[in-house]
Amino acid sequence: MKLLSRDFFLRNPLIVAPELLGKILTRKFNGIIISGRIVEVEAYLPSGDEAAHGFKGLTKRNLSLFKEGGHAYIHQIHKQNCFDIVAEKANIPAGILIRALEPLQGIDLMKKFRDKE
Questions:
Q1: What residue spans define the domains of the chain?
Q2: Which residue in 38, 59, 39 sits closest to 93, CA to CA?
Q3: Is residue 28 classed exposed, middle or buried when 0-12, 13-18 and 19+ CB atoms within 10 A define those classes?
Q4: CA 38/CA 51 separation, integer angstroms
Q5: pTM
Q6: CATH of span 6-116
Q7: pLDDT 10s digits, 2-39
């Protein structure tokens, strides 16, 4: 498996988002690997979109959205946890919401997390 370079994320989210489709998101949790194929994304631009979390500027809540591309931005909306990947250079609040994954590994662990909600 090849890791994506930082440069991959230092671009406009409208370019990065479709290129993330089909990529595998992987995490090791308590020694168990969980992974899924990215099958749905949504790009958020740094300006002009009131739904974007960076629209009103830097806050304590959205601090990681202002970091350099490739960082994770985790937030909650309507009691749902959301995972975004930051795009662009530092201080440009652009990102890609990972809307859906096709589970590949660690499905039993994913079910445990889901059932706790």
A1: 6-116
A2: 59
A3: exposed
A4: 22
A5: 0.89
A6: 3.10.300.10
A7: 899 999 999 999 999 999 999 999 999 889 999 999 99
